[in-house]
Design a protein that fits this description.
Helix content is about 40%, strand content about 20%. The chain has about 120 residues and is an alpha/beta fold.
């Protein structure tokens, strides 16, 4: 069962995605983006895929994915980034595997996760 980590500061979104992805057969872990450092959380949970919001309260997702790609232990973690702004090129150039523009259809996310996990 592939493990997906949610690094998202919108609690409603986390709740909806957790339910949806669990129904689709994913193991879902979420982190408190206001309390935890993303890289520390990824290191402790070792997810197959990280769903990373670009705009987190204390971290910029672009910086997070750059740091992830430079970390020998974490660099192979698959990353799907999302934002309400069209930042696909920036996200992919920093090392994201995929980008989803919010609001996105749940089916689009599930298809991407199944390809990456």
């Amino acid at each position: 069962m592939p493990k997906v980590m949610l690094a998202e500061d919108d609690e409603t979104m986390v709740s909806l995605l957790s339910t949806l992805l669990a129904m689709e057969g994913f193991q879902v872990v979420s982190m408190d983006a206001a309390e935890q450092d993303v890289l520390t959380a990824v290191r402790s949970e070792a997810p197959d895929v990280l769903l990373l919001d670009v705009h987190l309260p204390y971290e910029n997702g672009l910086d997070v994915v750059s740091a992830l790609r430079q970390d020998d232990e974490l660099k192979n973690t698959r990353v799907v980034m999302s934002s309400g702004m069209s930042l696909k090129d920036e996200c992919l150039s920093k090392g994201a595997d995929e980008f989803l523009l919010k609001p996105y259809m749940p089916d689009d996310l599930i298809e991407i996760l199944k390809q990456l996990a």
